[in-house]
Amino acid sequence: MNKTITTIIPFYNCGNVICGMLDSILAGTVLPNEILLINDGSTDNSVAVAESYANQYPFIKCITQEHSGVSTARNLGVKYATSNWISFLDADDYVENNFYECIINAVSDDSFAGSVCGYFTESNGMSTAYANPQAEIMDSDALLEAMFTNDNVRGFLVTRLFKTEIIKNISLNTNIHICEDLLFQTTLLTKYPDLKFACVNLPLYHYVQNNSSATTNLNLFNGAVFKYKPAFDEIRKLISKSYVDDNYNSILEYSMYCLLKEYKNGNKQVLPQIRGVQAELKTIQPTHSSKRRLAYIIAPIIFSHLSPS
């Protein structure tokens, strides 16, 4: 079995962090056969940094596109990939030195469509490990459900290895900017319901959480549309499962929690977003409804004043 790997790393103005990801890959016990750095129209020193690595290592290539977003960049990377397996990484994270050794060795024969590993979250100096000891192999249905219900799996592209021939004909939706990876995998797993993925029950990827996340900035709407809604609207067209609405409800409840905390601290500018999340909560029916959810729907501001800090 051919085990060549193409790594696709989109980047946009990541000149101060992309070295961390590339150095962690290059320190690995197994290296990918090619690394495609997709410059998404950067305006900082990112391109110079990427090209310095490309000049030093023949298997690293830097490809530039106009600023079009991470999905367009990943699609471009897939187009140029020449290996039998594809790995998507993010420029501002990093990997363990045995990352590629473990995820490629897990696919022991051609019957596998890929592999899934665990991860760490890195936030404010705290590292939290997530791994999935419950399974050694997951089929399409099991992986699909786990992406919505299991924090050890979730919908990350970066903790996956994919067989190239399977994903070559499936593109990321370039109109979706949040949860685009979850939508892409939902599309893949519903189109091919008989896939088999090997599980590597070790945390091997370091997901670095930073202040650019939507819930941290409390900028949760594009106009009147909740940012997560477009992806979930598309996902519902593909599958009709209660765990989809349950997951969406969890995102809404956490968003409301963050907004109310900010409002209680004196930031009245988040009030329109509170009303927007309140309205969106009313549109779904999760399998379980808590008193907190009911309060968020009926009177979130009053609830925030009654609840402890």
From TrEMBL:
Keyword set includes Glycosyltransferase: yes
Domain of life: Bacteria
Transmembrane segments: none
Cross-referenced Gene3D superfamilies: Spore Coat Polysaccharide Biosynthesis Protein SpsA, Chain A
Ranges of residues in domain Glycosyltransferase 2-like: 7-130
Keywords, sorted A to Z: Glycosyltransferase, Transferase
Keyword Glycosyltransferase attributed: yes
InterPro entries found in the cross-reference section: Glyco_trans_2-like (IPR001173), Nucleotide-diphossugar_trans (IPR029044)
GO MF entry, a single one: glycosyltransferase activity
Name this protein carries in UniProt: Glycosyltransferase involved in cell wall bisynthesis
Source organism of this protein record: Pseudobutyrivibrio xylanivorans
One Pfam family hit: Glycos_transf_2
Alphabetical list of SUPFAM superfamilies matching this protein: Nucleotide-diphospho-sugar transferases
